[in-house]
Specification:
By secondary structure, this protein is mainly α. The protein has a two-stranded antiparallel sheet. It comes from Glossina pallidipes (Tsetse fly). Its main location: nucleus. GO terms for molecular function: DNA-binding transcription factor activity, RNA polymerase II-specific; sequence-specific DNA binding. Belongs to the ETS family.
Length: about 90
């Protein structure tokens, strides 16, 4: 796998997209449907690779899943903000 972003700066969503864009990673992560959803077919391998990329050898699926949950919660909060703040007429 080619590293397009230095290990210290890559975000989890970028890393997952990188894995998904290479069909040779289908053994551990694949697209599911057409709505931008994906499936971790080997979550332990994805976690291992994420830990390797971030130089965190103790990374495991529990830690990775918490990071995914936090990312999803941030996304939901950002979307909710758009609905709470009406546009102002200038």
């Amino acid at each position: 796998m080619q590293k397009s972003i230095s290990s210290g700066q890559i975000q989890l969503w970028q890393f997952l997209l990188e894995l998904l864009s290479d069909s040779s990673n289908a053994g551990c992560i694949t697209w599911e449907g057409t709505n931008g959803e994906f499936k971790l077919t080997d979550p332990d391998e994805v976690a291992r690779r994420w830990g390797e990329r971030k130089s965190k050898p103790n990374m495991n699926y529990d830690k990775l899943s918490r990071a995914l949950s936090r990312a999803e919660q941030r996304k939901l909060n950002e979307n909710a903000e758009h609905f709470r703040q009406p546009e102002q007429d200038l």
